[in-house]
Predict the structure.
Amino acid sequence: EFLATKLAIHRPAPGPEAFAMAVKKLSLKPKATAKPMAKKQRAPRRKFGIAEMRAATKMTKAQWDKHQIGMAAKWPQPEYMSAAIPGRSHTNYRDQTYESITRWMAETKIAYRPHAKSPGSKSHVR
């Protein structure tokens, strides 16, 4: 019925020969087969260039220790950082930090403490 309806839409009432021909054409079409989709292969994580970056860092631990003298006075932590909050780690961001950062504007200048991370650490390379 469906096929007959489909043919009737495209052509005026065909005869039985035309109907048989249309059925034959439809049966000759290859059937669509569902192929399983191949999963994309993710690239393996690499530490590209980490050895080169470590080799390029010329500051030794002794030089870094000497450089840190007086840096605490030049780059003081906010007063609220000296008080420990019970039940929270010292590495958690404080609410006061969020309060000050959300007030930054496009014109706000950000200054980073030079050589804040010690040589040999992962953070120093970054």
About this structure: The radius of gyration is 36 Å. The chain has a mean pLDDT of 77. Residues 16-28 form the longest helix (13 residues).
